[in-house]
Amino acid sequence: MAERATTLGELKESDWRTRSVKDELRANLLRKLATGEDLFPGIVGYEDSVVPQIANALLARQNFILLGLRGQAKSRIVRQLVSLLDEEIPVLEGSEVNDDPLRPVSRYGRLLVQEQGDAAPVAWVPREHRFVEKLATPDVTIADILGDVDPIRAARGGHVLADELSIHFGLLPRANRGIFAVNELPDLAGKIQVGLFNVMQEGDVQIKGYPVRLPLDVLLVFTANPEDYTARGKIITPLKDRIGAEVSTHYPRTIPDGVAITRQEAWTERDGARVMVPDIVEEVIERVAFLARQDKRVDQRSGVSQRMPITALEAAVSSAERRAVLCGEDTVVPRVSDVHAALPAMTGKLELEYEGELVGSQTIVRELIAAAAAETFENRGGAGVEEQLEEVVDYFERGGMLRLGDTAGTAATLEGFGTVPGLLDAVEDLSTGEESDGERVALAELVLEALVAARRISRGGTGDYERAAPLRRRPGGGMPGAGGPAMEV
Description:
The protein is 43% helix and 12% strand. With 489 residues, it is of the alpha/beta class. A hairpin with a 5-residue loop joins strand 14 and strand 15. The longest helix has 21 residues. The protein is elongated, with a radius of gyration of 30 Å.
C-alpha cells in the first residue's frame, strides 16, 4: 500500500500517483460536496454567500483573496482549508521543500534520487504540516518569504555561494505541495509582493542575484481589509491581476445568525456552575453590534467586529457570576443590567467618527444598549402591554424611584420590581409561563430599558430608574433630536 512505502521503489510499485495540490483540493472538495459534508464547520451565515464563492475558486484551481473588515472569520476559513488536503503525502526524506519523490524540484531532491535511485528514503507528511501562514508586516523581507544564501551552510557543505544547496529556503518554498496563506496582504512591501507574483506566474526565484528555477506547487490564499488599501498600503496591480478570485466576507446579516456565532464562540461555562443565559439578553447584546454597524457616530470603514458581542456576553455572564456568588445563588442568570456592566468589553472595540468622539464611547454604548433593548422588547411582543407600561410610567412621573444594586439577588430584585405598579404584570404578559425567577428579572429590566429608550423614564449612571428629565433647549434654539450626541439633560 502507498501509505506504507518507505523508499522510492516501494512508492513506484504502489497505487499512489502524483497530482498537484490544486487538483488534490478540487478532488476532496467534490467528494465533500457529493456527500453533503460541512465544508467549513463553525462558520455561520456564509452558507449562501462566501462558501459557494470559495468552492467555485477551488474548483477552478484558482488562488484567491478574502476581502473583508475585521472580525469576519477570514483567518478561520483559511485555516480550515487544510481539511481539504489529503491526510498525508509522501516526500523525499530530508527535503526542505516537500519534494515529490517522483518529481523532485530542488537540487537536494534531484541529487538524492540520482545517487540512491529506488532506495531513496520516503517520509510521509500529514496535512497539518502542509499549511504555512504568515502575517504580513512592513518589516517582512524577501529572505523571510523566498529565502537567502546561507554562508555557513555553503562552507560546511563545500559549496560555492551560487550553488542552490547553499540556500536557506523561506516560507513560500517550504509550503511547496501545500497552502501558503498571507494575512493582511496590503501590509506587505511592494518588492515582496513582486516576489510572490513572480513565483505564481513563472516559478522563478532570484536570491542574491542567483537565478533558481523552482516550479512550486502551492495554493496561495490572501486576506485583506478594504481599508488597508489606503490606510497602510495597497496590493500592487500585477499581483492583484494574478489572484484568481476576490471573495468578499461580511458580518452576520440576521440577528439569529449573530446570536448563533456569539453563542458558539463565547466562554459561558464557568467551572461547573449552572449558567442560564436568557435569549432576550443574547438578543440585546447582538442588537447592540447591529445598531453600532449603522450608527453614523461609529467609523463604519473600520467596522464593528463580531468579537464585540462575544466579549460582551462573556463579561455579562461574569457580572452575573459575581452576583450569584455574593448572594449564594446556585444559578448564574445574566440580566440587561449585566450588559451595562459589560461596557468595558464594548467601548474599546468601537472606532468613532468626530461626532462620536465629542460624545464619548461610553455614552454611545449606553444609548445603543437602550435602543437594542427597545427593539428586543418590540420583537418580544411589547406592543401588547401598553396599558401596563402606562402604569409603570405614571409611577415614576409621580416621583417614584427604583434603585437596584448590581449585587441584589433574584428574590430581592423581584420584590423591588413588585413596588412598581404594572411592571410585573407586563412581565407576566410577555412571558411564556416557563421562565425562572432569574429570567423574569431579565424581562422586567428589558421593559424598563425599553422605556428608557423611548425617553419615558430615565436611567442614572448607577442603574437607578426615575422619571424622565425634561429636555432643555440649546442656547441657539431648537430641541436636540432623540438619541443625538448634543442632548442636554
